[in-house]
Amino acid sequence: GILRILQLSETLHIGIFKHPGFSKEHVTKLVRFMENLKEFSFLDSDRMIATSPWQEIGNRGDKVLSYSVFKLAIKQHEMKDRQPWPSGRIGPELLATNLRKISVIDRVLKPHYLLESAPKLTQLKLDWQETFRPSAEMPADWFKDMIRRPSWSALAKKLKALSITFPAAYMPNTYSLPPQDFSLLMADLQNLTHLELIGAGMNGPFPLVPTLRLCPELKELLLEKSPIHVPGQYEAVRDEYIHRNLKKFHLVDELSSLTFHKHLTSVIATYMPGLTELEIMPKNVREFSGFSCKQLMELTRLKDLTRLGITFSTSDCTSNMPALIYTLKEFQSLRHLVVSWGCDQMTSQQYPHHLMTWLHTALRATNANIGLQPSIKHHQQEYLSSENYCLPSFLVL
Q1: What whole-number distance in Å separates Cα of residue 363 and Cα of residue 370?
Q2: Cβ partners under 8 Å of residue 81, min gap 6
Q3: Residue 86, SS3?
Q4: How many CA atoms lie within 13 A of 161 on its CB side?
Q5: Which stretches of 109-255 are DSSP H helices?
Q6: Exposure letters 199-229 (e unless 16+ CB within 10 A, then b)
Q7: What does the buried/exposed string (b/e) look like for 380-392 if buried means 16 or more CB atoms within 10 Å of the residue's CB?
């Protein structure tokens, strides 16, 4: 029956929101009973975000449960309740789950719980807001203290995937992984293959190239709202920092790094030569002029690049359109191109439409096998016609 199905299930996701009669005790037994469970959550990331000191934190009405349920299951096991749980889970030994992935949302992570009761864990997500009234349960410096403990070092060595959303992603002037904490966090992540950081580097740019060396097995690096630092334009290339395993790199919702580091595309092509997917997008194109054809040409050194999302310089491309087509044809493997247009000469909302139509026509005329698509985030109007809400010609297959 249904109990047997649950017992054999490996994944459990339940959305729990404004439900005053529901508590973590109700699902703790379920999580303990599902002996094959590898991943579970209660969609904690969809909780309410505190946006001001005057917002009532204690009466949100939402439920942040996953990590709390996990800890309560440990406590119930230690209390040795009389219910006969499968696989000998009841007994003097520590609770040992089969979990591979867990999310810790708006809670203080204590790594020893995961080391003892989730020994097979390889994927971890941290996401928290800084409260305006720190308490003993959620002290302001809990993360800084945690990464300095031996238990974090032991857990970090086991991780394959790590995602962290820092408080600075939600509120300014809050914690965002300052440089003095960077090395402590990254020191033992040498087995990591996937790293996602949101809201890092606000108190000092995130060191991009050293990260590549600290994580030699990394295949995906996703940075959002995270200013970065890269080597200077005339600095010698250090071969020991070149990362040939990295396949996917995203730098999105960031502006200062794009405007300050004019040689950013050259750095990416040099230190990430094996990329197959690259996305570099600002939060708002109104504040960014875009990449020139010369900067774009640097990326043609990425011989395996098949997917590219990037902001074109409107003025540079319109003043020399044949150069843009020539540059795009220099990409040996490019098949999917997502484009946004910088603010230069953007006199109306219709201007990106004309540029996309021209680019689509020019690529077809040269038999370039590149699928073209405008950025839905920056140019939503391109997906709807003002007359009959149909797709424009360059989106029709």
Answers
A1: 8
A2: 90
A3: helix
A4: 13
A5: 111-117, 142-146, 150-156, 179-186, 208-214
A6: bbbbbbbbbbbebbbbbeebbbbbbbbbbbb
A7: eebeeeeeeeeeb
CA distance 271 to 237: 8
- Cβ atoms of 249 and 272 closer than 8 Å: yes
Q: How is residue 372 written in tokens?
A: 């073209």
Cβ neighbours around 296 below 10 Å, total? 23
Most confident stretch, 32-36, 59-63, 290-294, 366-370: 290-294
For residue 228, give Cα distances in angstroms to 200, 251, 319, 325, 371: 9, 9, 31, 30, 30
Amino acid at 13: H
Q: Alpha helix locations (H) across 253-298?
A: 256-260, 264-271, 293-298
Q: Is the pLDDT of residue 82 over 60?
A: no
241 within 8 A of 300, measured Cβ to Cβ: no
CA angle centred on 52, ends 48 and 55, rounded to 5°: 60
Distance CA(16)–CA(120), nearest Å, equals 26
Number of residues written out for the chain: 397
pLDDT at 136: 67
Contact 102, 118 (CB under 8 A): yes
| pLDDT tens, residue by residue, 207-226 | 999 999 999 999 999 999 99
CA distances to 189, 215, 271 from 209, rounded to whole Å, are: 15, 10, 7
Residue 159 amino acid letter: L
How far, CA to CA in Å, does 153 sit from each of 144, 159, 230? 13, 10, 27
| Mutual angle of helices 66-79 and 25-33, in 10-degree steps | 70
Distance CA 379, CA 96 (A): 49
Q: What H or E segment, with its residue span, contains residue 321?
A: helix 321-329
pLDDT tens by residue, 357-394 = 888 888 888 877 888 888 888 877 766 654 433 444 44
Asked if 109 contacts 80 with a C-beta cutoff of 8 angstroms, the reply is no
3-class state of residue 333 by DSSP:
coil
